[in-house]
Amino acid sequence: MTIALTRRTLLTATLAAGVAVPLSTGPAVAAVTKRLTLPRPTGPHRIGTVAQRLRGGNGRDVMASIWYPAADDGRRYPRAPWMPAASYHALFASVDLDAAEAPLTAGLLGAPPLPAGEGRPVVVYSHGNNSCRAETTIVVQELASHGYVVATVDHTGDGYSEFPGGQVTTPDDEEFNPWNSAYDVRALLDHLQRLRGPLGATIDMRRVGMYGWSKGATSTALVMNEDRRVRAGIGFDGEMQSQPRPTTIDRPFMIMSAEFPRSTEESVEEFWQNLRGWRLNIQARGAAHSSYIDTQWLIPQIAPLIGMTPEDYAAWCGTLDPGRGVRIQQAYPLAFFDQHLRGRRQRLLEGPSRAFPEVTYLP
């Protein structure tokens, strides 16, 4: 499918996938082949991952990935790519891909799951506009390394995906409503509930959380409005705009603000006032819209390859240090789900932390 991408849409997808694309009209920069990297997760478990096809919202087929603690020693199974090759190239059909290769993940393809006794808590993820399910792999790997089963889904029609057999799908021209993403996630929850075998045996569907970035944050709220299986949710800098908008939620919810804080985005303040359960709103000083996803780590690797200007760098990473951004991505979602899905009190969620001086806890 041929699509017309805006500059911001192209860059959002490009940076999330770890591909270099020129950001300025200055002198051309010679191509340099480099494989980008992702930070290692901090948990004790090795990670396995499998991709699965399922029927999503409105009868559309969607691709999903399931990440989980693995029993393998890491020598028998290959590391999963950040994104399948064909959809990776489709994402940037008009862009030279030689400057940088997308990173490999810590996930071992098809590795057997580590037995879990009573079952592991589950977290599902909804991606942003015109993107892909891989955009928060840093967070996904962190959760899985600490004992969670994490499932991510490509919203067919609002992103780039590859199906078994090589079929590649790209965003449709029409506007994609966050409700469509919410329907996909509910279908994903149904799929997880039906899973059997060793992987299905590790899942505890009584302890389910969800998070999303940008449009996916809105989808997280919408799913929680409709589906009681989701006990706790996080929104990464979402505008919370949909028709109809999210309504009252009586379960825990954390907002991680950046460019769309409550002070300037009316829809987020309206959503905040509709939260009737445990709630927390934090904001990292200097964070940009993409600072809570993989972009914050990948951009610094891409910048020297393409001669990125300081202005363009700041537009994508803000002034938040990339390493600090990664630690925020790893620490806060893990603490939130540990407290609300595992019942483990987390002092990190109770107020300003010396370990994270750049994070403000908003009243």
UniProtKB/TrEMBL annotation:
<keyword id="KW-0442">Lipid degradation</keyword>
<dbReference type="InterPro" id="IPR006311">
    <property type="entry name" value="TAT_signal"/>
</dbReference>
<dbReference type="InterPro" id="IPR029058">
    <property type="entry name" value="AB_hydrolase_fold"/>
</dbReference>
<keyword id="KW-0443">Lipid metabolism</keyword>
<keyword id="KW-0732">Signal</keyword>
<protein>
    <submittedName>
        <fullName>Alpha/beta hydrolase</fullName>
    </submittedName>
</protein>
<keyword id="KW-0378">Hydrolase</keyword>
<feature type="signal peptide">
    <location>
        <begin position="1"/>
        <end position="30"/>
    </location>
</feature>
<dbReference type="GO" id="GO:0016787">
    <property type="term" value="F:hydrolase activity"/>
</dbReference>
<dbReference type="Pfam" id="PF03403">
    <property type="entry name" value="PAF-AH_p_II"/>
</dbReference>
